[in-house]
Design a protein that fits this description.
CATH superfamily of the largest domain: Hexapeptide repeat proteins
Number of domains: 3
Strand order of the largest sheet: 2-5-8-11-14-19-22-24-25
Radius of gyration: 24 Å
Number of strands: 27
CATH architecture of the largest domain: 3 Solenoid
Number of helices: 6
Helix content: 10-25%
CATH topology of the largest domain: UDP N-Acetylglucosamine Acyltransferase, domain 1
Largest sheet: 9 strands, mixed
């Protein structure tokens, strides 16, 4: 009977459903290192196989973008579209990634101990982002440790996302600028216990640089959170109205006009062209100094001694 139990456990390992009755689905099930019903010898084998898989997975995520990389990631249990462009990123001890058509993952971001990452069509994650989760919460709730990015949404560069709870970017939403912090867990000092929650950026909403967003916040659709704002649930409310939010804590300031940014079909804004300089480019922020068109080449404004001297004159 003991042999039959071991064989059944091995079959469960191969199928990947060894802990279906013992833990939530997703990476939460993998936190317990050894499947139930496996003896000490098989436990060592299991841990060795898991460690080998983790090493192989780290290496594949560091490959340059190519169809082979996407196929290998699928073989490791992910769901990656063939049209997704995935540059080298660091993925350590994470669960399943679901990446849809025409997604761009730019290089040098790091994902650590995530339960699940879902990225919708035509969305992007930029450079040098740190996206992490504390795995302890995933033992009790399969929604913990999740990042979900909707269609045509995005994260720019150098942000920190704590996904110990759950962070969701709705369709068309974006975390813009640089160096924002999204914190989905915090310490309840009254009860002296950690708590987790969900952060939602509403449809077609945008946050500026250096924002701090706490757990429980739902940024309304078609809203803009100004640079440096601190967004907490008690200030923004559960049913906040669309508009401009700013301050510490961030509060509703005014309504926004109908913005072209809301109607875009992908994550990118229109590129700057010479036409912008030749017609209605607003140079008032340059102190009234007229921008000399000779300072422009095919890639944009030149920097250097000549351009600096002309602007000084």
């Amino acid at each position: 009977m003991k042999g039959n139990g071991t064989a059944a456990a091995i079959a469960g390992i191969v199928r990947g459903d060894h802990d279906a009755e013992h833990a939530p689905a997703g990476r939460a099930a993998e936190i317990d290192e050894t499947p139930p019903g496996v003896g000490s010898a098989m436990s060592r084998v299991w841990r060795g196989m898991k460690a080998l898989r983790d090493v192989v997975s780290v290496g594949v995520w560091l490959f340059p973008p190519c169809r082979l990389k996407n196929r290998l990631l699928n073989a490791l249990g992910n769901d990656i579209s063939a049209s997704a462009v995935i540059w080298p990123v660091l993925v350590l001890s994470c669960g399943r990634f679901e990446i849809a058509d025409d997604v761009s993952l730019m290089p040098f971001s790091a994902f650590r101990r995530m339960n699940r990452v879902e990225v919708g069509p035509r969305s992007m994650i930029g450079l040098f982002n740190s996206i992490t989760a504390s795995p302890e919460y995933q033992r009790f709730d399969d929604r913990a440790g999740t990042l979900r990015i909707g269609e045509s949404a995005g994260i720019t560069n150098r942000h920190y996302l704590d996904c110990s709870g759950r962070i969701e970017l709705s369709d068309g939403a974006a975390i813009g600028g640089i160096r924002s912090i999204f914190q989905s867990h915090e310490l309840d000092i009254v009860l002296n216990r950690p708590t987790i929650g969900t952060i939602v950026v509403g449809e077609n909403s945008l946050t500026g640089s250096s924002c701090i967003v706490a757990k429980g916040v739902h940024i309304p659709s078609r809203s803009y959170v100004g640079m440096g704002s601190v967004v907490i649930q008690s200030a923004i409310g559960a049913d906040g109205r669309p508009g401009l939010y700013a301050g510490s804590p961030a509060r509703w300031r005014r309504e926004l006009p109908d913005c072209e940014w809301w109607h875009r079909r992908d994550t990118h804004t229109l590129p700057l062209t010479r036409h912008d300089f030749d017609t209605d480019f607003d140079d008032t922020d340059f102190g009234g100094t007229e921008l000399d068109s000779t300072d422009l080449d095919s890639t944009g404004p030149r920097t250097g001694t000549d351009a600096d001297e002309r602007s000084a004159v």
